[in-house]
Amino acid sequence: MDIAASVATRAVPGIPRDGGGPVFREPWEAQAFAMALALHERGLFTWSEWAATLADEIARAQASGDPDTGETYYRHWLATLERLVAAKGVATPDTLHRYRDAWDHAADRTPHGAPIELRREDFR
């Protein structure tokens, strides 16, 4: 485990991990984790700010019926990432939704196992 991941796992409670560090069920979870590390290293937010925002996202989800079995942890992580990126002015919520919709469209047309590539027509 690299130093940044080690610091994050100590600073942010609840990160799914084993003896070797964070564990991920899907590749996108590792990518969301890595994006948060990179944005933290660039000074976009502190780990205290991240942890507070993540706790708020988890509380919101629980209030909406999330059973909090641990399987949705990285969905909350991603929502926190999107929330902080928008709050810090890196991207607007509309831009985030536009790209999310484009990725969904690109994934729908991509054969299983092939890399997903965004195309202009994905932004319809």
From TrEMBL:
Pfam family for this entry, one: NHase_beta_N
UniProt xrefs under InterPro entries: CN_hydtase_beta-like_N (IPR049054), CN_hydtase_beta_C (IPR042262), Elect_transpt_acc-like_dom_sf (IPR008990), Nitrile_Hydratase_acc_put (IPR023808)
Domain Nitrile hydratase beta subunit-like N-terminal: 22-102
Entry-linked NCBIfam families: nitrile_acc
Protein name according to UniProt: Nitrile hydratase accessory protein
